Amino acid sequence: MPDSSRRNEKSRRAILTAAFELAGEVGYGKLSIEGIAARAGVGKQTIYRWWPSKGAVLFDAFLMMSEGETGELPYTGDIERDLKTVLRATVAELRDERYDLPMRALNTEMMHDPELARTYTERLEEPMRDMKKSRLRKAVEDGQLSDVDLDVAVDVIWGPITVRWMNRSGPLTEEFADVVVETALSGLRSPVA
Amino acid sequence: MPDSSRRNEKSRRAILTAAFELAGEVGYGKLSIEGIAARAGVGKQTIYRWWPSKGAVLFDAFLMMSEGETGELPYTGDIERDLKTVLRATVAELRDERYDLPMRALNTEMMHDPELARTYTERLEEPMRDMKKSRLRKAVEDGQLSDVDLDVAVDVIWGPITVRWMNRSGPLTEEFADVVVETALSGLRSPVA
Amino acid sequence: MPDSSRRNEKSRRAILTAAFELAGEVGYGKLSIEGIAARAGVGKQTIYRWWPSKGAVLFDAFLMMSEGETGELPYTGDIERDLKTVLRATVAELRDERYDLPMRALNTEMMHDPELARTYTERLEEPMRDMKKSRLRKAVEDGQLSDVDLDVAVDVIWGPITVRWMNRSGPLTEEFADVVVETALSGLRSPVA
Amino acid sequence: MPDSSRRNEKSRRAILTAAFELAGEVGYGKLSIEGIAARAGVGKQTIYRWWPSKGAVLFDAFLMMSEGETGELPYTGDIERDLKTVLRATVAELRDERYDLPMRALNTEMMHDPELARTYTERLEEPMRDMKKSRLRKAVEDGQLSDVDLDVAVDVIWGPITVRWMNRSGPLTEEFADVVVETALSGLRSPVA
DNA sequence: CCATAACCGAGACGGTACGTCATGTCTTCCA
DNA sequence: TGGAAGACATGACGTACCGTCTCGGTTATGG
Fold it and tell me: D43-66: per-residue pLDDT in tens?
């Protein structure tokens, strides 16, 4: 197995950058190890030596890009307002050409590679989910939300956005983001009942 | 352009069946036109003549499989109970090996092929969505649900399930289905507020 | 088996013309039955019905083209002069783009199809050879040639030309034609001997 | 362009051997790059990397086979006797199944590929022609032949054999070889003249 | 003078091979 | 020894033709 202490950092960054860019330029279908190596000015073996799959490269590329991206969701004291802010930002990002294609590429790999999905969940999704749950928890403490399972709450709020993006099953707009937040907060049940 | 009146129906069915089965057996990554043609006992050209892409074949395979599948969602008068029944069934199907892999394959293709996504939406998603909205509409009439945007309601209910399935971001169980229904119906907001 | 009395003469001519032209335009390698049928505005089956092979079509095309071509070689009384005239004409024809490629195509087919070679020999080569032998016989009668095997004589005179054309083993010029005639007539042996 | 220093010699030999054998077994029409690759246990790309065409492979196969084949034509002092010896050997070789088909295949390719014909001429034909001219030159020095153009002499002697082989226009026997030699040496012209 | 059998155009079909591209492994050579 | 370079066996791609096979739509006799 390779000795990572001898690893060439410049090559590593060149590969990840090339992978991310190519995913955005040519799309998932035409994203190839050969292409990444050529763009990065690197031998193919250098990729195969350090990553087990195309998806793993892509994942690391995301990791590098999102490095230092962090911290907390906004807190104004009004959970509805804050969730709308966040979801609108998410929608904007998903509509951004620069992120759309690479994210689709990564999602595709995850879809068929449970191991990659697990790693992704651990390294990228969980931290983000924790941020989300953290904000929701504060809202519970503020008496704005009832004491539900926060994981389910996250899924109910962010799930609809993700699905629309993936399947293009409807327009992915800021209005949609707002309505999702309102609906998730108020529930579907008639208040009379 | 091919003359569809001369089309060989037997070959068509053999191709769609082979595509569905292979998607289930070898997964998306190893699903090839050559493999489908070989399994179906058909020349490759016969596939290329009638379908523009691997995704289109897969889509037609789903169409054939879901032919006559239909009608209405259950109606007992209790929307919560009925939604739980439906979502539990959905979860069961998504966990069924026979459907999991082919669906992932189709979703992958849709993810990168907007035209295919559009067709899918029109031919398969819309009808199902209409069934769902129809059941929800009855619940509104029954005074069980408030008068929300039904498309958003559908996304809020079914979105979390779909996302967990796709990304394997958490366990996809019947309990999860139940909690999603309860949360979506009651909303996250504290009743005190 | 097909009833040739019902045969469509127009189609037949269109096929042969198309075959000859295409052989000249695209060369042997890209000459296809499909191409001939398309150019002739004819169904493929009409070709397969009447000819056993591509070579047979080509052969018939030559037969049609050389119809009525004939009679006798020139006779001025001087065999050397006459042979030079004939060989120069042959060289000119072989250098003519319009005949070069189709002839190469036909020769290729004959090379690998003994049956076709036999038919060609009978129908086209023998008549031409008879004309050649006829002229040589007259030269024998005129006391200009000794009484050799005329078939061998024909091969010795025309063989060198044919080989140079086929293999491009040297320049195929009128001068070459002249020298071949002179050499074949005089022989290689030193007159002293 | 490929770096020939990295070339795998074992693959090269396997390809050339396979090409020669297959040409002899299945004939020109069914000789395919795929078939050669399969027989040689080699990827198709390895053939496409190093040779521009099927004909070039075949040519190299001949080159390999005729390696070290050489030297000089027999010299007993009697040119007629020696030429008969050589032409009889040529006839025998052309009638040998092991050489007939591969040679036809190579000739076919040369016929349609001037570049290949040029290479063949340079690398295989010229050396053989030089041997032939060398023997004829000695005969001239011995006073057995007159001082004719030796290239034409070679064509007059060997041309008839080649043409009969290619076109099967007559029986290719040792008797024919003898008569061709006699006729070429004595000439056709009547000795009286 | 129609009926019926053939030819005809068109082109779908199961195949084979094409020439290209990417895979993941291996080897060579350089720093 | 890590890395750039790239040859290698493998296998899928999408295309071109093969030779066979229907499908209607004309001919063109022969009963």
Answer: 999 999 999 999 999 999 999 988
